[in-house]
Design brief:
Number of helices: 0
Number of strands: 10
Structural class: mainly beta
Largest sheet: 6 strands, mixed
Strand order of the largest sheet: 2-10-9-4-5-6
Radius of gyration: 13 Å
């Protein structure tokens, strides 16, 4: 069955960096577009970064220039490199494929001042 396991979150000071990983299983990663989503406290989950099966990327305006999404299909893993973190980047981060209904447990990112 489809599984998505996110890791790499933690507590970091504003201006710092984190690298999130999403290990996938149960489907062929290479044929799917993938996204990283963020759910901030009290808010709906939003897409912050997206990568297609052919490595085209796009980002939410709020993270453009600071976050980088990448994928390693051989390792069944999708990454999110986050730099110059801001307080408003705090939230639970999830990865998923386009149209995916199964979600992982997410990884908590907390940015402090």
């Amino acid at each position: 069955q489809v599984q998505l396991v996110e890791s790499g979150g933690g507590m970091v000071q504003a201006g710092g960096s984190l690298r999130l990983s999403c290990v996938t299983s149960g489907f062929i990663l290479s044929i799917y577009n993938m996204g990283w989503y963020r759910q901030a406290p009290g808010k709906q989950r939003e897409l912050v970064a997206h990568v297609t099966s052919y490595d085209a990327t796009k980002y939410a305006d709020s993270v453009k220039g600071r976050f980088t999404i990448s994928r390693d299909d051989a390792q069944n893993t999708v990454y999110l490199q986050m730099s110059r973190l801001k307080l408003e980047d705090t939230g639970v981060y999830y990865c998923n494929r386009d149209g995916g209904e199964t979600w992982g447990q997410g990884t908590q990112v907390t940015v402090s001042s």
